[in-house]
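Quick start: what a row looks like.
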Amino acid sequence: MANINLATNSYAADKKTFSYNAGLMVVGGVLLALVIGYGVILFFDRSAQAKIGTTNEQYETEYQKLISGNKDLVDFQNRIVVAKELVPQESAGYSSLPAVEKAMVPSVYLKDFNYDQAQKTISVGGVADNFDMLAKQILSFKKSDYFTEVSAGATTLDQKGKVNFALKLKIK
């Protein structure tokens, strides 16, 4: 009596059998999707790495042009490194170079930089494209937490219409 089947014939007819072939197809489809997804990820990763490499090479090329090319452009980072090796930090105002660098406005560059240790002041001379850029530069120095006072000196126009200026910056 242990093997009594209580199911009706209609129930047995409605019951669908799961084919191993269908299961194998589903597993194969999932595996194929994973392989394709992995390939896509590898493609995008290599593409991104190639773009990063190209951009780094382009940056290095432009940086070398900047360093070796136009001497009118100021590369503060190289000056900071050279100044650190040549002069003691306390006596030459070395620590003020990063503050000056942060406060610089694009299209304005410095020609002169003098540090007076006794008065704790920095005298800078530079060139701006116009008076508006000079005003923005003075405002940038005034907003800096490193300087307590900014005073403008003589300003002149050169033959190209650029504004030559002198500023005196008092350090906190």
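That is the whole record. The mean pLDDT is 83. The first strand starts at residue 108 and ends at 116.
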